[in-house]
Amino acid sequence: MRRLILCFVILSVTHFSQIRYYNNHDFSFTPPGAMKYGLYGFDNPALLSTVKKFDASFLWSDKSGNWSDFNKWGLFTGFSGVGFGMIYESAAGFSVNDYRISSAIGDDELSIGGSYGWVTGDKIFFNRSNLYTLGILYRPFKYLSIGVTGYFYNQFSDETVFEIAARPFGNQKISVFGDYVLNQKFPNDKNRYSVGASTELYDGVALTARYFENKSLTAGLQIGLGQFGLAYQKQLDNKQKGLQNIYGIRFGGNDRNILQPFKPKNNYYSLSLSGEIKYQNYAFFDNSKTLYSLLNSIDAAKNDPAVKGIVINAAEMQVGFEFSWELRDALESFKSTGKKVVIFFDRTNIVGYYLFSVADHLVMDPLGGISLEGFALGRNYYKGLLESIGVGYQEWRFLKYKSAMETFSRESFSEGDREQRDRLVDEYYNIVRDAVTSSRNLTVVEFDRIVNEELYLIGNGAVESRLVDKIARWDEIDSILIKYEGDKMKKIGTASLLQNKLPNDNYWGKKPEVAVIYAIGGTDLNSGMRGKYLSEVIRKVGGDNNVKALVLRVDSPGGDALAADLVAEALKSFKGKKPIIVTQGGVAASGGYWVSMYADTILAAPMTVTGSIGVIGGWFYNSGLKEKLGVSTDYVKRGASADLGVGLVVPFIGAVLPDRAMNEKEQALVKKRIMGMYDEFVEKVAAGRNKSTQEIENIAQGRVWSGRDGKKIGLIDVIGGMRESINIAVSKAGLKEGEFDIAEYPEMPLVNISALIPLPISAEFEKSKLYQEVKRRTELNGLPAAILPFDEMWLEPIGE
């Protein structure tokens, strides 16, 4: 009975029951949306959408006069849209527990959240009740944050809190804020608002100050120590007397670290290049690495002051020439800061060694080896095979270098094809020789001798030739680093790099995007590059106002000119509206160059196969195969050439092998069509490159060029890859470092179903590149094609 009377007296004589928001959230240093993540949804649940990594805080008050009594404390946690919090409070023999579970949906610009709170203990004494909370957070741009939170109590009055915060410089350095409490039951209460500011002029040290309508004040200090943090806040009443001190400990996600400049630089970033490297991968059940993620990680390690070097495990690496160049270029940039590169490998050819030779210290497995035979570019010819099985072929070639169809019409190189291939082989060899001799301190004579006289270098032979520095196994790499550096080095992973540890509270709202769009594979309408679908993706992404620049990565040997033109026109529709940058991969020729030609800037690697501005065609027809198989056909027709579509239906592929060759009249019409498309191709390239048609004609005729030669003749603007293309896009769009996101398109499915559920052998064969290329050739039968030779459709130049 006495406890109830005491409870009634306290409730009658205090103002505590009126504005519940400030009293129940006195652990808050600022309004929820003004600084970091508030109380992880305990205050405004919508804020949980900004919490990307698990984070938690434990805070307590010395309201009793002794900081260690823990008469009031709170635990608050949040992660990826879900939060939990609780506050314990005791006084005069009474105690109460406030629990709250919260969730939110939305993005960095707009989110909405809700929570449910329940209470155990002496609810009446502490004026507590169960409640529902609904919150909204709106950050239209980096300078402004607006929040509205409604508290709906079961037994007491409802409250609505309006908050606003502004950042004059668009980052966490300085924020000003204010909030206002609308209380339906006590509209005349004298503590309805607060105003204040926070500042973090030095990373890891945040100061806060807040003034309330009832003339009380708070001043706070938060210190970030990486995954750990400390907090302190002093509260004064209107007579400048201390009411309470708040102490806090934060743990979980990384914060800016006050000690970062003083951390020892004894970390080596450990990176794996083993296995396949692709452009895009699936979200789940796909451990393959992507080119962009690797380049981004190397740059992150380069800019991390705690990283002294990088150690790479490249055993069983599967990577083409152009990818090797991009990775090597990124590692060269890494080394330019004075940091070291250590690479381990087992077996490699000349392309892999070109990449590995960038290392300051190169380690080879005891049973590994290096093959440096040089380069060769060859192709298969199927004229004899076609004749032997009874398939005839008519080649429609009117350009010296457009050699795509001689695979089926000749038995060896044409003069034009031999000339362009010979030049490419020279380029590949010189690119590798220049890089290796420079990195390994070899003379040109020494390199040429190794290539021409050594078949395969192993063990001490590779060391004596100065191609490697050490013979050892990967499990010995730690001891190798100790000997190399003279001290013990700590290996860290991608997640431990500073760029990947920093919180995202330094930027409000949705960051502008640079869209990287992949145009990979043959220029077909519904396979390969999927021209019809890709053009729709480009128009959708380019039409997004938040996308400030388009970077198109082209790795394509061409194919159907219609598919290529759909993609090119979609890209062209944004010319002059936002930067359009094309970065060419291993091959971006013929239809691959058609896709590229309207860019503001075109980049290629030195060894990229580019150009091939030309059109060609051919005609497969029955020359005895049908009869050998015992198949006959019959037909009726209207139209002189209608029977060109009649013939043997090829099993599995579903294409028709026509019964006859084309006559002279029909071939003349085909020539007119091919040359008309060629003239259109030249005109389009001239318009895209701001050159005359004669200038393009002089370098066209279907000839392929290396990236280096392409730059000399004006088909390429810059020698560079993904990193350089993104940097150019960022610069042209006027974006600032750290204030944009990279978004990759088309979006990949979550899982690769065929990897989880094995397909029948027939279905696997239909997915193979060989089958797809044979199908492509039959579908293009009789049509003008912007395409490379059969062999080059899926093979990058490789070391032989």
**Terminal Cα span:** 95 Å
Beta-strand residue percentage: 25-35%
- Rg from alpha-carbon coordinates: 34 Å
Low-confidence stretches: 1-18, 793-800
Number of helical segments with 4 or more residues: 23
Q: What best-fitting shape do the alpha-carbon axes yield?
A: elongated
Subunit arrangement of the protein: single chain
Helix content: 25-40%
Whole-number average pLDDT?
A: 89
Beta strand count: 38
- Order of the strands making up the biggest sheet: 1-2-3-4-5-6-7-8-9-10-11-12-13-14
Class from secondary-structure proportions? alpha/beta
Main beta sheet strand tally, sense and closure:
14 strands, antiparallel, barrel
Ordered list of secondary-structure elements with their pairings:
Blueprint: H1 2-13, H2 20-24, E1 55-61, E2 72-79, E3 82-91, E4 94-106, E5 110-121, E6 131-141, E7 144-153, E8 159-166, E9 174-183, E10 193-202, E11 205-212, E12 217-224, E13 228-236, E14 242-252, E15 267-272, E16 275-278, E17 289-290, H3 291-302, E18 307-313, E19 317-318, H4 321-335, E20 340-348, H5 350-356, E21 361-370, H6 383-389, E22 391-396, H7 406-409, H8 415-439, H9 444-453, E23 457-458, H10 459-464, E24 470-471, H11 477-485, E25 490-492, H12 498-501, E26 513-520, H13 531-542, E27 547-556, E28 558-559, H14 561-572, E29 580-589, H15 591-596, E30 601-604, E31 609-611, E32 617-622, H16 625-628, E33 647-649, E34 656-658, H17 664-689, H18 693-699, E35 704-706, H19 707-712, E36 718-719, H20 722-733, E37 741-745, H21 753-756, H22 761-767, H23 769-779, E38 786-787
Parallel strand pairs: 15-18, 15-25, 16-17, 16-19, 18-20, 20-21, 21-24, 26-27, 26-37, 27-29, 29-30, 29-31, 30-36
Antiparallel strand pairs: 1-2, 1-14, 2-3, 3-4, 4-5, 5-6, 6-7, 7-8, 8-9, 9-10, 10-11, 11-12, 12-13, 13-14, 21-23, 22-32, 28-38, 31-35, 33-34
Helix pairs in contact: 3-4, 4-5, 5-8, 13-14, 17-18
